[in-house]
C-alpha cells in the first residue's frame, strides 16, 4: 500500500494524501456492494495509547469508514475476558460458509490465512464479531476523540 510506504519513509503528509486517494474507488465499491445487498462490517480492537502504526492505520481506515464501510472501534480492555488464553485472532467471514484467520509475523507482516469451512465454528465467530461490533464505538467519534489531535509520529 503506497500510504504505508510513505509512512515508513517518514513522509506523514504523503501517507495521508495517498490514503485519501483511495476514496473515489472505495465509494464506488461500497455503492456497488450495497446495490448487490452486500454489507461489510469491520470492528477494530485498539489498545491505548496507540502505537505509531495504529495511528497511521486509522487514517486509511477513516477513508474507508467515510466511504461506506460500517466500522466500529472497541477498546482492548472490553475484550480482555475473551483473551484469557490468547489474543483474539483477526478473522474474515464470507457469508456463513467460509472464514479466514489472518496470520501475521511477530513484526506485523501479513503471512497468509487459514481457511475454515466448519459452519459451527463460523457461526460462533460471527456471533462474537456481531457482539463486539455492537459494543463498539462509532469509528468517527473514536477517531475525533483519540486520533485527530495527535501529532504525526516520529521515527518510523
UniProtKB/TrEMBL annotation:
<dbReference type="InterPro" id="IPR049244">
    <property type="entry name" value="DUF6879"/>
</dbReference>
<protein>
    <recommendedName>
        <fullName>DUF6879 domain-containing protein</fullName>
    </recommendedName>
</protein>
<feature type="domain" description="DUF6879">
    <location>
        <begin position="2"/>
        <end position="143"/>
    </location>
</feature>
<dbReference type="Pfam" id="PF21806">
    <property type="entry name" value="DUF6879"/>
</dbReference>
